[in-house]
Amino acid sequence: xxxxxxxxxxxxxxxxxxxxxxxxxxxxxxxxxxxxxxxxxxxxxxxxxxxxxxxxxxxxxxxxxxxxxxxxxxxxxxxxxxxxxxxxxxxxxxxxxxxxxxxxxxxxxxxxxxxxxxxxxxxxxxxxxxxxxxxxxxxxxxxxxxxxxxxxxxxxxxxxxxxxxxxxxxxxxxxxxxxxxxxxxxxxxxxxxxxxxxxxxxxxxxxxxxxxxxxxxxxxxxxxxxxxxxxxxxxxxxxxxxxxxxxxxxxxxxxxxxxxxxxxxxxxxxxxxxxxxxxxxxxxxxxxxxxxxxxxxxxxxxxxxxxxxxxxxxxxxxxxxxxxxxxxxxxxxxxxxxxxxxxxxxxxx
Length: 349
Description:
Elements: H1 11-23, H2 37-50, H3 60-67, E1 93-96, E2 100-108, E3 111-116, E4 121-124, E5 134-137, E6 140-146, E7 161-172, E8 182-200, E9 203-215, E10 224-230, E11 235-242, E12 248-258, H4 264-280, E13 286-290, E14 297-307, E15 313-321, E16 329-336, E17 343-344
Helix pairs in contact: 1-3
């Protein structure tokens, strides 16, 4: 098939490009000879990986370049975090600014089920930041599928870029089984921008800056999102959302990560040990607390003291379960309460 310089490709030639992209793992959609958004995104990713100028257009230069290359899929680089981000014990609660609480309600295989403090439910994979698989808010329900290979480790290593597509559907269950489904195809790109010091209510951390962009984004939703991920916690401590005009539309900061699991007796005894430590330990000091009726033991460390709203004494602290790895750190801030509640998490009082 002759390819003339500076001439537009025919549908047959575009279909050849689509087939070559597919054999290289770039998912252009069907080889139908049509330049749709999936094909354009696949071309752009191939161009990035090949060191070419990125325009997402099927050209004679592109097809000649591809015909001279072996059909090798892009390499997926495995990256290990200090603490795997995919470990979410059932019952763990993540408390964020604005009294936003996300609780782990179930873990099965690669699926983690969550419930928020306002009654919304959603399901994610084992890693923070990647697209939700399912979600439900009131009568609205949604599902999403991603082309990201399951063997891709997360978060990306510093300087590494990851590209994938996400197809989502959303509908109103109140309208019955024939409810119209809104379908959105988006191209995601994510990268690690390096380490940065971050101060949030739960404390001060050295975090990895994880940036993701998606296009197109649903109306009114984020187009660029930045997470500040702390490996010791296995989760993010701050998140910023920006719209297409680079205006910040949301900001979320960590107040506390509260461990789940164990019996009610264990949780009550552990809470009492935390209160004792907050009462008497100076910043930088720690104790080891052992469950008197079990085998669990925890390091409880007070990190800082300060005066909160109304002059109430407050502390930042962390607890870390000892024993088998991975050891996840649970940081939090607590202020003096009233009556029997000696120390309370802001927003949960």
